[in-house]
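This part of the workshop introduces the protein records we will be handling. The structure tokens are whole numbers drawn from a learned vocabulary of backbone shapes. The record below serves as our worked example for the rest of this section.

===
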Amino acid sequence: MLDWLGPEGDVIARAFERVFRRDGTPFGSPALRWGGVHDGAEGVQWNVGMDPRSPERWVSVNLEGLRYDGWPLARLITKEMRRPSLPALAGASPHLNAVRMSMEREFWTGRNRVHWESIADIPLADTTDAEWRRVLSEARNCLASASGRRGRASFVPKSGSAPISAEVTPHLAFRVTAAQVDDWQQFIRDGLECLDPLYEWTAERAGA
């Protein structure tokens, strides 16, 4: 399933199946060189994976800027811009100190993601009100204003390695990481326990 990750790719896929009691949906590619599996949910997802170049292994709560049932990430961004709640959640939950928050802008040609740039990739504990508002503002600009922020925007990438102009969407994730994992099943279970409040928060803020 994850041949390009070597033997550890098979370990990840089997561990995910045993913890979640279902097959995972693969993501990544040999060209990207990183990858893993997610739970297949249309909206907030659990995913686990690795990047052999870092090296980094992770368990993550993930919400892409896709249509799904009416652009749930757009709903989250709108709600948080009106009444931010993530910094307070992080401050009230010391066990979340090990979590990183990331927001990316992803560039698309049709269904293919061709490039991505980081808006933020910081410890959740460092997500102040001011920083979170900055992240939300940049993420909102990745959604088309003409459609009420419910669609891809046009954007000029900062990097010369990407198209001069492309469609763009935001992508939010919370993750726990490790440089090496000896027991993937336990690593996934520990990640689920740590990240569950953020899964619930993301699902609630992205809900209709």
